[in-house]
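Researcher: I'd like a candidate sequence for this fold, 106 residues long. If you have to choose between options at a position, lean toward the conservative one.
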């Protein structure tokens, strides 16, 4: 059936600021992949605050250490805020940039 095929397709839901994506791309390591996965979950959950699931990042060829380094880079760049709890996945909130904002690279 058409509906079951459709539910398996994942896509990024926008709008996503080009400035935000460019700032994420300028961060070191795998920060851009982490940023894209965060944006995927933001679109799925329809909330700017999501729990960071590593399952989608593993699909992108990342291990959890690379994920957390990328997340730290995004956080240091001011693109996300992160609430961490020992033994749990972190809660990530996307920080939207206004049209004039520029975030520095690493």
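Model: Candidate sequence:
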């Amino acid at each position: 059936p058409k509906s079951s095929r459709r539910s398996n397709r994942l896509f990024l839901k926008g709008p996503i600021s080009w400035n935000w994506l460019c700032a994420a791309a300028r961060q070191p390591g795998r920060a851009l992949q982490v940023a894209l996965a965060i944006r995927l979950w933001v679109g799925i959950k329809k909330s700017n605050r999501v729990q960071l699931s590593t399952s989608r990042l593993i699909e992108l060829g990342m291990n959890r250490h690379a994920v957390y380094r990328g997340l730290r880079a995004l956080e240091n760049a001011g693109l996300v805020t992160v609430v961490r709890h020992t033994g749990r996945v972190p809660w990530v909130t996307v920080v939207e940039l206004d049209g004039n904002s520029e975030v520095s690279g690493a």
